[in-house]
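User: Show me a protein chain along with its predicted structure.
Assistant: Here is one chain, sequence first, then structure tokens.
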Amino acid sequence: MRLTAYLAALAAMAPAAAGAASATVETYDSGYYRENGVHDPENPITYTGISLGVELRSFYVFDIAALAGLGPVASATLTFYGENGEFRSDTDTETATLYEVATNADTLTSGTGGRAAFADLGDGAVYGEATITQDSRTPMPELTVDLSAAALDALNALLAMTTPDDFAVGAALTSIDGFRTQSFWGASYFSPSAELTLNFAVADVPVPAAAPLLLAGIGGLLALRRRRRG
């Protein structure tokens, strides 16, 4: 083999730049629980806030089983589709916080979670936060939230399973300050209503241990070849 061919082979062994592969999954179910623990499984509305003195919290469930073994997840975002319902506020600024969900997905989506599920949707590790400032009773904008380290840990734990459980996120309006109407996604109806994007870390391709010695040897042969030609 020519020396140039050896050099080409060495170039192929050089470490590849670190990159990332990504995957996007839409909700397979979403909805809301009232503070009295009621959820209608046939209702796709994800009203998050307070209406006529009654608080509502929403949930978003993703089937990530097809992504088993693709970790680790380096970063992730949750995008809520725009034009899905209304933003409602007396102050024109509201904040929603995203939370981990401990309630079993089947229990959550079937409407049997009760008051415990309602409480769960606004409690636990924080997965992210979004604040909107705009006129009340105007269409919801598209929102993309960077998920927290706690969310990434939960995703990686699920993806390490042979058959990952569903990944669920709760949402509660944390700017509620009275009995007026305040909401994200008021009168929403989209289904699916959001998408989860996972960015997977791709490790550098390691250089074989013998590569530096081989390169040094080829360098010596090239030097010797030049002297002979001289």
